Amino acid sequence: MSKELIRLRDLCMAFDDELVLDHLNLYINDKEFLTLLGPSGCGKTTTLRIIGGFTTPMSGDVLFDGVRINDVPPYQRQINTVFQKYALFPNMNVFENVAFGLRMKRIPDPADPSGKRTVKLAEAEIEKQVLEMLEIVSLKGFEHRKPDALSGGQQQRVAIARALVNRPKVLLLDEPLGALDLKLRKDMQIELKKIQQQVGITFVYVTHDQEEALTMSDTIVVMDKGSIQQIGTPEDIYNEPKNAFVADFIGESNIIDGLMLQDKLVKIYGKTFPCVDGGFVLNEPVDVVIRPEDIDIVPVEQGQLVGTVTNVTFKGMQYDIIVDFRGFKWLIQTTDHSPVGAKIGVKIDPDGFHIMKKSEYSGKFGDYSSYSEEYDELSDVEALDETEEVAAAEGSGNEE
Q1: Of 154, 303, 379, 398, which has the fewest beta carbons less than 10 angstroms from its beta carbon?
Q2: Is the separation of the CB atoms in 7 and 26 below 8 Å?
Q3: Are residues 69 and 148 both part of a single domain?
Q4: In 3D, which of 300, 276, 264, 266 has the Cα closest to residue 395?
Q5: Secondary structure of residue 209 in the 3-state scheme
Q6: Which range of residues forms the domain containing residue 105?
Q7: Among residues 237, 268, 299, which one ends one of the domains?
């Protein structure tokens, strides 16, 4: 069983009379990769800064290994931080950047029986620890390079090495991949998880990027308006969202009003569908989540529902297709192309439905109408001959 390392208890924080954290409670285990995920202003960076000691909460407690550390300054905490701006020393090479903290460090003098006197680390020990850390972050051989001779990903690894070489128990990372391009960001996601597993310490990571959270985390904490909406593994958060906010923020979701007629039977658009969820009261109003990848396009006569294609966007591996079902726009992700104006049938297996209780977020997400202009701009359907679109619409079958 994992050991609890950090506990945040009933934290409240406000800036300019605006509540940023609203009685937040959270615990973080030793050696866990935990990600605080949410939109700008949700309180995730404030939570990180409170853990690091850079911000003091208005009320509540921060416990580290069972000890309250609210008043402990950052430099006395067994915690280091890597920010989005790496703040490397430009006049120092990679070795000296990483060694900087070790040169400031003092240890008990082994020649002093009282243990009161301290000495600096020996140069040989500094060199040993720096080289070990550079090997962990795959920068062996880069010791003599200056920061401006490194790529963004290499600079980030130097910043991580500098933070880790002092052997903290916790590393805090505040959107450290934000300045990198897409491909490098994806590579660094894998690299960061590998580093965390190698050094075997707790990582607390802040991001608004769902892919980063899903790729790296042991645990994801989804936040909004200073409150935690859901805590779980990446699989739990994606497959079993607690409310419409989580379902919309993690991945793409079609979120439709429904009625739970009984266990494993839900009604949408006046039709009943088998599902796998239960535990609701009879005829309870619910939010129904259908992920775009869980929808199969079938001939109209075989469809459980029939709709009209309004937008098509080519994404390389798939098409993003917007389909109008009685005025509500769904997103379908498929390898099959359907032209704009075509009438299509759709089929959803029982495990493709996820049923959620109504919440304050109900009715605010899941309709892709607002994305019409964006999809129009990206769409490849403009390359289609207009007459082909008309013919496709006329010959595609009857409306439901």
Answers
A1: 398
A2: yes
A3: yes
A4: 300
A5: coil
A6: 4-237
A7: 237
